[in-house]
Amino acid sequence: AQSVTQPDIHITVSEGASLELRCNYSYGATPYLFWYVQSPGQGLQLLLKYFSGDTLVQGIKGFEAEFKRSQSSFNLRKPSVHWSDAAEYFCAVPDSWGKLQFGAGTQVVVTP
Amino acid sequence: SAVISQKPSRDICQRGTSLTIQCQVDSQVTMMFWYRQQPGQSLTLIATANQGSEATYESGFVIDKFPISRPNLTFSTLTVSNMSPEDSSIYLCSVVAQNGYTFGSGTRLTVV
Would you say residue A27 has pLDDT above 90? Predict the structure, then answer.
Protein backbone atom coordinates (compact mmCIF):
# COMPACT_ATOMS: atom_id res chain seq x y z
CA ALA A 1 0.00 0.00 0.00
CA GLN A 2 1.10 3.53 -0.64
CA SER A 3 2.49 5.45 2.31
CA VAL A 4 4.06 8.79 3.05
CA THR A 5 6.71 9.46 5.68
CA GLN A 6 7.73 12.82 7.05
CA PRO A 7 10.67 12.02 9.33
CA ASP A 8 10.80 15.38 11.06
CA ILE A 9 7.95 16.12 13.43
CA HIS A 10 9.25 19.53 14.41
CA ILE A 11 11.80 21.92 12.90
CA THR A 12 12.98 25.23 14.29
CA VAL A 13 14.60 27.66 11.89
CA SER A 14 15.80 31.24 12.17
CA GLU A 15 14.14 33.89 10.06
CA GLY A 16 16.12 34.35 6.89
CA ALA A 17 17.68 30.90 7.04
CA SER A 18 16.99 28.14 4.56
CA LEU A 19 14.44 25.42 5.19
CA GLU A 20 14.18 21.86 3.94
CA LEU A 21 11.36 19.50 4.85
CA ARG A 22 11.71 15.83 4.06
CA CYS A 23 9.11 13.58 2.50
CA ASN A 24 9.54 9.95 1.48
CA TYR A 25 6.90 7.86 -0.22
CA SER A 26 6.27 4.25 -0.94
CA TYR A 27 4.61 3.74 -4.29
CA GLY A 28 4.90 1.26 -7.14
CA ALA A 29 4.76 3.70 -10.01
CA THR A 30 5.60 7.36 -10.48
CA PRO A 31 3.28 9.04 -8.02
CA TYR A 32 1.50 12.31 -7.95
CA LEU A 33 2.96 14.28 -5.04
CA PHE A 34 1.64 17.23 -3.11
CA TRP A 35 2.77 19.62 -0.40
CA TYR A 36 0.18 21.47 1.69
CA VAL A 37 0.56 24.08 4.40
CA GLN A 38 -1.78 24.63 7.33
CA SER A 39 -1.35 27.83 9.29
CA PRO A 40 -2.72 27.96 12.85
CA GLY A 41 -6.49 27.89 12.75
CA GLN A 42 -6.54 27.81 8.97
CA GLY A 43 -7.45 25.28 6.33
CA LEU A 44 -5.12 23.47 3.98
CA GLN A 45 -3.42 25.40 1.21
CA LEU A 46 -1.71 23.73 -1.71
CA LEU A 47 1.93 24.83 -1.98
CA LEU A 48 2.91 22.80 -5.02
CA LYS A 49 2.40 19.53 -6.81
CA TYR A 50 4.27 17.11 -9.04
CA PHE A 51 2.52 15.15 -11.73
CA SER A 52 5.22 14.54 -14.33
CA GLY A 53 7.97 16.27 -16.28
CA ASP A 54 10.52 18.56 -14.70
CA THR A 55 11.49 17.11 -11.33
CA LEU A 56 12.04 20.54 -9.77
CA VAL A 57 8.69 22.10 -9.05
CA GLN A 58 8.07 25.71 -8.14
CA GLY A 59 5.21 26.59 -5.85
CA ILE A 60 3.67 29.53 -4.11
CA LYS A 61 5.26 31.63 -1.37
CA GLY A 62 8.77 30.97 -2.70
CA PHE A 63 8.71 27.22 -2.06
CA GLU A 64 10.10 24.56 -4.36
CA ALA A 65 10.33 20.79 -4.21
CA GLU A 66 12.40 18.22 -6.02
CA PHE A 67 11.19 14.77 -6.98
CA LYS A 68 13.96 12.17 -6.74
CA ARG A 69 12.82 8.79 -7.93
CA SER A 70 16.02 7.04 -6.84
CA GLN A 71 15.46 8.18 -3.26
CA SER A 72 11.65 8.02 -3.29
CA SER A 73 11.69 11.56 -1.98
CA PHE A 74 9.92 14.84 -2.59
CA ASN A 75 11.61 17.32 -0.27
CA LEU A 76 10.32 20.85 0.15
CA ARG A 77 12.71 23.78 0.27
CA LYS A 78 12.72 27.51 0.77
CA PRO A 79 15.92 29.57 0.52
CA SER A 80 14.96 32.18 3.11
CA VAL A 81 12.10 31.72 5.55
CA HIS A 82 9.83 34.46 6.81
CA TRP A 83 8.07 34.56 10.16
CA SER A 84 4.81 33.93 8.30
CA ASP A 85 6.11 30.52 7.19
CA ALA A 86 5.54 29.18 10.71
CA ALA A 87 2.94 26.49 10.12
CA GLU A 88 2.32 22.77 9.75
CA TYR A 89 3.43 21.24 6.47
CA PHE A 90 1.99 18.06 5.02
CA CYS A 91 3.24 15.87 2.19
CA ALA A 92 0.55 13.80 0.47
CA VAL A 93 0.25 11.07 -2.15
CA PRO A 94 -2.95 9.65 -3.64
CA ASP A 95 -3.40 5.90 -3.52
CA SER A 96 -4.52 3.84 -6.47
CA TRP A 97 -8.14 4.75 -5.71
CA GLY A 98 -7.40 8.46 -5.75
CA LYS A 99 -7.66 8.83 -2.00
CA LEU A 100 -5.07 11.26 -0.69
CA GLN A 101 -2.77 9.82 1.97
CA PHE A 102 -1.03 12.31 4.25
CA GLY A 103 2.24 12.21 6.07
CA ALA A 104 2.30 12.93 9.78
CA GLY A 105 3.21 16.54 9.16
CA THR A 106 6.16 18.74 10.13
CA GLN A 107 5.66 21.67 12.49
CA VAL A 108 7.88 24.60 11.51
CA VAL A 109 8.75 27.21 14.11
CA VAL A 110 10.49 30.39 12.97
CA THR A 111 12.61 32.27 15.48
CA PRO A 112 13.66 35.93 15.18
CA SER B 1 -9.71 24.94 -9.57
CA ALA B 2 -12.86 24.08 -7.64
CA VAL B 3 -13.94 26.25 -4.73
CA ILE B 4 -15.55 24.64 -1.69
CA SER B 5 -17.82 26.34 0.79
CA GLN B 6 -17.86 24.43 4.06
CA LYS B 7 -20.01 25.21 7.03
CA PRO B 8 -20.21 25.65 9.89
CA SER B 9 -16.66 26.85 10.40
CA ARG B 10 -16.79 25.93 14.05
CA ASP B 11 -19.22 24.70 16.67
CA ILE B 12 -19.36 23.71 20.30
CA CYS B 13 -21.73 20.83 20.93
CA GLN B 14 -23.04 18.90 23.87
CA ARG B 15 -22.14 15.24 24.15
CA GLY B 16 -24.80 12.91 22.85
CA THR B 17 -25.96 15.32 20.16
CA SER B 18 -25.26 15.32 16.42
CA LEU B 19 -23.80 17.87 14.06
CA THR B 20 -24.18 18.01 10.30
CA ILE B 21 -21.42 19.59 8.24
CA GLN B 22 -22.08 20.77 4.71
CA CYS B 23 -19.81 21.19 1.72
CA GLN B 24 -20.90 22.96 -1.44
CA VAL B 25 -18.66 22.90 -4.51
CA ASP B 26 -18.87 25.47 -7.29
CA SER B 27 -18.56 22.81 -10.00
CA GLN B 28 -19.58 19.22 -10.53
CA VAL B 29 -17.05 16.76 -9.15
CA THR B 30 -17.06 13.01 -9.13
CA MET B 31 -15.01 12.29 -6.04
CA MET B 32 -15.57 13.96 -2.69
CA PHE B 33 -13.80 12.97 0.50
CA TRP B 34 -14.26 13.63 4.20
CA TYR B 35 -11.30 13.86 6.56
CA ARG B 36 -10.81 14.17 10.28
CA GLN B 37 -7.89 15.95 11.89
CA GLN B 38 -7.61 15.29 15.58
CA PRO B 39 -5.73 17.85 17.71
CA GLY B 40 -2.05 17.90 16.83
CA GLN B 41 -2.47 15.12 14.27
CA SER B 42 -2.45 14.66 10.54
CA LEU B 43 -5.49 14.17 8.36
CA THR B 44 -7.24 10.81 8.36
CA LEU B 45 -9.69 9.86 5.65
CA ILE B 46 -13.14 9.03 6.98
CA ALA B 47 -14.93 8.13 3.78
CA THR B 48 -15.40 8.73 0.08
CA ALA B 49 -18.78 10.24 -0.74
CA ASN B 50 -20.29 8.78 -3.89
CA GLN B 51 -23.15 10.37 -5.77
CA GLY B 52 -26.08 8.01 -6.09
CA SER B 53 -24.70 5.32 -3.82
CA GLU B 54 -23.57 4.74 -0.27
CA ALA B 55 -20.37 6.26 0.95
CA THR B 56 -17.29 4.07 1.21
CA TYR B 57 -15.83 4.12 4.72
CA GLU B 58 -12.24 3.61 5.79
CA SER B 59 -11.23 1.16 8.45
CA GLY B 60 -12.27 2.40 11.86
CA PHE B 61 -15.15 4.54 10.63
CA VAL B 62 -18.76 3.38 10.40
CA ILE B 63 -21.88 4.72 8.79
CA ASP B 64 -23.87 4.82 12.03
CA LYS B 65 -21.36 7.22 13.55
CA PHE B 66 -20.58 9.27 10.42
CA PRO B 67 -23.53 9.14 8.03
CA ILE B 68 -22.83 10.86 4.73
CA SER B 69 -25.15 12.13 2.04
CA ARG B 70 -24.23 12.99 -1.55
CA PRO B 71 -27.44 14.00 -3.30
CA ASN B 72 -25.71 15.50 -6.35
CA LEU B 73 -22.30 16.22 -7.85
CA THR B 74 -21.85 19.56 -6.05
CA PHE B 75 -22.97 18.89 -2.48
CA SER B 76 -22.32 16.56 0.43
CA THR B 77 -22.96 16.41 4.15
CA LEU B 78 -21.20 14.60 6.97
CA THR B 79 -23.00 14.04 10.25
CA VAL B 80 -21.11 13.33 13.44
CA SER B 81 -23.59 11.37 15.54
CA ASN B 82 -23.93 10.81 19.27
CA MET B 83 -20.89 12.94 19.90
CA SER B 84 -18.37 12.45 22.68
CA PRO B 85 -15.37 14.61 23.61
CA GLU B 86 -13.19 12.26 21.56
CA ASP B 87 -14.94 13.56 18.44
CA SER B 88 -13.46 17.01 19.01
CA SER B 89 -11.51 17.55 15.79
CA ILE B 90 -11.34 19.51 12.59
CA TYR B 91 -13.43 17.95 9.83
CA LEU B 92 -12.60 18.76 6.22
CA CYS B 93 -14.11 17.91 2.90
CA SER B 94 -12.06 17.61 -0.26
CA VAL B 95 -12.65 17.18 -3.95
CA VAL B 96 -10.53 16.13 -6.88
CA ALA B 97 -10.36 18.99 -9.34
CA GLN B 98 -8.47 19.51 -12.56
CA ASN B 99 -5.20 20.50 -10.95
CA GLY B 100 -5.34 18.36 -7.85
CA TYR B 101 -7.14 18.20 -4.55
CA THR B 102 -9.00 21.15 -3.08
CA PHE B 103 -10.06 21.37 0.55
CA GLY B 104 -12.81 23.15 2.37
CA SER B 105 -11.79 25.54 5.12
CA GLY B 106 -12.71 22.97 7.76
CA THR B 107 -15.15 22.69 10.65
CA ARG B 108 -13.61 22.94 14.10
CA LEU B 109 -15.78 20.87 16.40
CA THR B 110 -15.53 20.94 20.17
CA VAL B 111 -17.65 18.49 22.16
CA VAL B 112 -18.26 19.34 25.80
Answer: no
